[in-house]
Design a protein that fits this description.
The protein is α/β, with parallel strands linked by helices and 358 residues long. Helix 6 crosses helix 7. The longest helix has 14 residues. The strands form three sheets. It has a nine-stranded mixed sheet with strand order 2-1-17-16-14-3-12-13-15. The protein has a six-stranded antiparallel beta barrel with strand order 5-6-7-10-9-8. It has two domains: 248 residues, QueA-like, CATH 3.40.1780; 85 residues, QueA-like (Thrombin, subunit H, Beta Barrel). Strand 1 and strand 2 form a beta hairpin. The protein has seven helices and 17 strands.
Length: 358
């Protein structure tokens, strides 16, 4: 398959720069996979598409303030750092800009929001093929404990802010209301639409709400740079599925009830932990590099709630696969749905509207 098959035209003004006034005030485009029928609804209507006994699986990973600023102690040049993954205490992989100036053994003093030195420093101790830097932090017991006061929310590059900084609204709204486990550098955005009241409504309907954890990496925004999808290497992400969630999902499947994933991250974790026989296995501290694209045959999930995704992205390829499992028909279904969303002026990407594929 060719990457260009997943391209589409999006007017820039449809890229949402702010969240909806309230979380559940987003719009909801519903795609019925079997018929191809589309419905235009509000996200507050989402519970009407669920029924008692459904298992709704959400990703409870929490976004960390992973964007830092620093200054080269030798040259005085400034850096922007984005923490990607913790290897151990004070030991992180990071993206750095400008990367070429972040040479091996460079010492970087971390700065606060006003540009003053914090006393914390980082040494570049390794580089990898992707151009990332491995940093050893100094003068702190554990840099992860300093991030709340030192770091900034790592908004995706298409959300524009003055000087690239998040505002107070972003700190609340670029986080799900059920986020618990620190580790993501991007939000599992399909979950941003939920309110505590809406989740409680679902529970009253008899929907079983379950959680897993997949720490979203910045690779979720990385473009597919190859022409042929067979040559693309998917970024890995860390995930955990606990025994309680595995038991709920397996019980539902054995009884013919539906399993619904909130977001591509939840779906990717579920698919990664499901055996060929369809059993979801508990996983602790797993890593997945699963690349889902047509004609993927899904083992576990019956419905997907998601946002609208970037052209030629792995996430768009995933939803195209889910729209028609085991075939390539989903590409056309999603193409039609996205064209309708553009025509109807839906809001796209992280702070945008939602889509339910049923």
């Amino acid at each position: 398959m060719q990457t260009a098959e997943f391209d589409y035209l999006l007017p820039p003004e449809l890229i949402a720069q702010r969240p909806a006034e309230t979380r559940d005030a987003s719009r909801l485009l519903v795609l019925h996979r079997q018929s191809g029928q589309l419905e235009h609804r509000q996200f507050a209507d989402f519970p009407t598409y669920l029924r008692a006994g459904d298992v709704l699986v959400l990703n409870n990973s929490k976004v960390i303030p992973a964007r830092l600023r620093g200054r080269n102690e030798a040259s005085g040049g400034e850096f922007e750092l984005l923490l990607l993954e913790e290897n151990g205490r004070n030991d992180w992989w990071a993206m750095m800009r400008p990367a070429k100036r972040a040479r091996l053994h460079s010492l970087i003093t971390l700065m606060d929001a006003t540009g003053r030195s914090t006393g914390f420093r980082a040494e570049v101790i390794e580089t990898n093929a992707a151009g990332h830097r491995r940093l050893q932090f100094q003068n702190t017991e554990d840099i992860s404990r300093n991030l709340e006061t030192l770091g900034d929310i790592p908004l995706p590059p298409y959300i524009k802010r003055p000087l690239g900084r998040a505002n107070s609204e972003d700190y609340e709204r670029y986080q799900t209301v059920y986020a618990q486990r620190h580790g993501s550098v991007a939000a599992p955005t399909a979950g941003l639409h939920f309110t505590p009241a809406l989740l409680e409504d679902l529970r009253r309907l008899g929907v079983r709400v379950a959680f897993l954890t997949l720490h979203v990496g910045f690779g979720t925004f990385a473009p597919v740079k190859v022409t042929d999808l067979a040559e693309h290497r998917m970024h890995e992400e860390r995930f955990t599925v606990d025994r309680e969630t595995a038991a709920l999902v397996n019980e539902a499947r054995s009884q013919g009830r539906r399993v619904l994933a909130v977001g591509t991250t939840s779906l990717r974790a579920l698919e990664s932990a499901t055996t060929s026989s369809g059993k979801l296995e508990p996983v602790s501290g797993g890593r997945t590099g699963l690349f889902i694209h047509p004609p993927h045959q899904f083992r576990c999930v019956d419905g997907l709630l998601t946002n609208f995704h970037l052209p030629c992205s792995t996430l768009l390829m995933l939803v195209s696969a889910f729209a028609a499992p085991g075939t390539r028909r989903g590409q056309e279904l999603i193409r039609v749905a996205y064209a309708e969303a553009v025509q109807q002026r839906y809001r796209f990407f992280s702070y945008g509207d939602a889509m339910f594929i049923a």
